[in-house]
Amino acid sequence: MSLPRIAVDAMGGDEGVRVMIEGAALARRRHDRFKFLLVGDEARIKDALEGHPNLRAAAEILHAPDVVSGDERPTQALRRAKTTSMGLAINAVKAGDAGAAVSGGNTGALMAMAKLALRTMPGIDRPALSALLPTLGDNDLVMLDLGANTECDARNLVQFAIMGAAYSRIVTGRDQPRVRLLNIGTEETKGTENLQSAAATLKEAAASLSMSFDGFVEADKLGRGDVDVVVTDGFSGNIALKAVEGTARFVADLLRRAFASSLRSKFGFLVSRPATELLKHHLDPNNHNGAVFLGLNGVVVKSHGSASALGVANAVAVTARLLEHNLTERISADLERLGGNHLGRTAKAVE
Length: 351
Fold this sequence. Notes:
By secondary structure, the protein is α/β, with parallel strands linked by helices. The protein contains 12 helices and 11 strands.
């Protein structure tokens, strides 16, 4: 059974058409039930498809004369939504011509267009940007928000936890994902009033939401594999994400320099190559590519701008998985189970 087709902004990303088409083709080879709507310059897309007959047979092209640039302001991009590849890909989801959209373009513009076109789900005040981070455990970590909302109140954090848990159940298979709030300590007295209020609400409601909640987690424990979902505001989340990515690059560069420092080190590299290749695979962001805008009436996935074809294929796979497991419907069901009473009390607790 084929899934609803996925609209791909073929012009997004640092290398645009070539990588986006190669990534979609790789995803199609892995899963022949994927169907695509390729949005962008028709002539360039047709040229790129010449080497990918399998994708060409499963795709339709929607011509878009314009492209959102990487440094374009969201307000400017919004005015050109009807002519850009990014805007038309999102509008295809709104119109029901596609089940989801994937873009490697300007994150701010993508968020603004998606929010305006698709609107937030009932019961969600603000959408959040979520991504998968590697851990030492069996599963990746779901973390949100990663930059969509720089300031969040307790009510926002509770909603993020609900959305993150629903996402985690899809990608990890856990019936009760382990959810924590990012804080400067694990003690109940640590953190802001918003964090403490959100923690109190989640402790009371966790059982009805099919999640395990036990308070706070510190940033140095993110990669241990002891937690499935980490919730924070977009300001702190973006800083934490960049710190994790920078540390991964630092470790990789340090190892590369160490192994090249002497003849003995080079021999040691040959001996330990299987382990270093495993480390490289684990830390490669392409293997964890695909950030999701949670809380919208539709699925929109952000591929990293510098992603390789493998990274784009993984972002497409994440998108298809969310469609297959009805992410939006799962979040709606959890919100209904929680009801307005808990969220109402959360809002009042911090007034």
